[in-house]
Each structure stands twice: as structure tokens, then as C-alpha cells.
Protein 1
Amino acid sequence: MKQIPETHADILDKPAFAHLSTLMSDGAPHTAPVWVDTDEGYIVVNSAEGRLKDRNIRRDPRVAISMTDPENPYRSLAIRGRVVKITNEGADEHIDRMAKKYMGVDSYPYRTPTEVRVLYYIEPEKVSVM
């Protein structure tokens, strides 16, 4: 697994929005803003089952993420990799932690009664920094 350089790893700890790119069935890219977390070297993204990014990842696990340091827009991180684990386990609690990180609230306010939260673990294969 490719490591995130220490010089830029702190960007992942900040409430910095990431842009996750997945591949559509025709090969076209689809990009969506997401919240990110880390777990033992993996980048973790939380979403809901059935969304476009969910369908794309389940069909083709190749993804890319780009982030810019909110305190310095000339400092950025780009990661290409693969989703190596998809799980619902802990996803509800995780989205509440992300809501705390990104919004300063204790629970995710946009949850709907029918959504099923899901976690995607991304293994970095190529990392670029600026």
C-alpha cells in the first residue's frame, strides 16, 4: 500500500472536502464531493447504498480522490487507488463522527429513514502532492 507522505497527511485530518472520482459503466468519470477519514493507511468514505458512486464502485473498484488544504489552496493531495473493502458494519456510527468533524454536530442531520449507510476502504496505489 502506498503511504501518504507525512508532509501532507494532515490534510486528511482536517475538515477538507475531497472529490471522489468513480467510473461510469461507459468509462466516463463521475466525481462527487465527499467527507473522508483514515483507518490504518486506508482512506475511508461513507455513503449510502444505491447511490451512483455506490453502483460505480461495486462494478469497478478503481477510484481517485483529490483534496486541497482548506488553509492553503496551493497545498494538495491526489490519490489513485482501489476500494478493497465495502461494509455496512459501523457505517451509521461513522457518519455521525464525520458530521462532528465536518459540521460540528453530534449526529448526521441528513439521514433518511430508508438509507443504508456503507463504508468504502480505499487502498492508495499512487499518491501525488503539491
Protein 2
Amino acid sequence: MFELDLRSRAPVYEQLVEKIKELIIYNVLKPDQQLPAVRVLAGELTINPNTIQKAYRELEHRGYIYSVPGKGSFVKPAVPGNNTARLRALEDELAKIVSEMLYLGVTPQEIITRIKMQLPEDEGGKRDD
């Protein structure tokens, strides 16, 4: 399920956070689905269980998962309207990306087209606009 690059400069727990976050965002991991137990995942990835625990704590802090004592960690369902701080951070990231694309010579219309291509078709984005 998870592939980590142990030669990467990025810490293993950060790689794990990004991989799990990606699986949640792309709906591979469904809301309320249980994540692998810390010890099980540590055994599969042959890394320290404390590293897994640190990644899970970070994901919980960011609002992607929740923990149930004695049961484990689960994917947190998205709650519309309860994400102001995270949306603000994402808008800041998007602003940086758009600025860099403009710097690289991409026109505003091309940027809009590329953004539309990222949207699901049932959400109003059409890939042939």
C-alpha cells in the first residue's frame, strides 16, 4: 500500500504522512476506514513503530484522521465549512504555484485550462473546454 524512499532526504514520517494524505484525498482510503495498526504497518515497512505513530499524530493534527482509544486510527470524513485554516494554507500554496507558472511563461488562460483539467467532470470541470 505504501512505498517509501529510504534514500530520500525527506524524513520517513513525512513521506508516510504525504502518502496517506494522498490516499485519503484520492478516495482510496474511505471515510471512517481503519488505517493499518502501527505495529502491523511498521512490520510491513520495516521501520520503527514510533515513526508510524508520529505520522499518525501529524495526520490527526492536520485533521485527516482520528483515533479511537483501543481501536486504532480511522480516516476522518470531510466536514464542509470546518476547514478555514487549511483552505487558507492551500490558497497560499496555490498562489505560489500560479505565480511560478506565470513566471515560467504560462498564460493565465492556460493556467485556468490546466486547473479545469484537474477537476472531476461531475464537479463542473470538463476536460475538453
Protein 3
Amino acid sequence: MSILRGFLPCLLVLGLITLPISADVLLIDGEPRVVERAEQPTRGMHERTVLTRFGEPGTRHDAVGEPPISRWDYNDYSVFFEGPFVIHTVVRKEVSESR
């Protein structure tokens, strides 16, 4: 039993270390571009946190499919949720082209 107590925290730490780091990669004119923003919703963030930090979105799209996927549109990016948690933040093409 003591082996399990030592093994479980190590497994948890290993799992946290291997979590992906969020970045947006866009193909514009065939060239990949990474769009980095200091402040945008990140994977795993809860809806309430997104509302608190970024305010009310311009448009909310109803959830579709199973699992339910919904989208909130802000001025220059869209946030995709699976249930109440962020799975992706996508910067719209027209915004990234102007940079």
C-alpha cells in the first residue's frame, strides 16, 4: 500500500507535466504562423472564469453534438467549449492578417 501512496503523486505530476501548451497555429498563404496573445482563454478554463476575465461574448452559439460543443465569439477570436470547459481558442483569420 505504501508503494501506491508514493506512485500516485508521481503519476499525477507526470500527467501535469505532459499537458499540452496552448498556441494557435494558422496557415495563411500556405505559411504556418503561431498567434500568441498575452490574454486569451486557455484550455481547461471554466465558462465562469472566461466571463469574469474577458466579459460577455458578442455572440453565443448553442451547443451541438455529443459531447456538447458550443462557441462564444469575441471581437477577434472564438472560444470553443466542451460542456463548461474551454477546449480551443481560435484567432480569426482576418485579424491575424492585419498584424
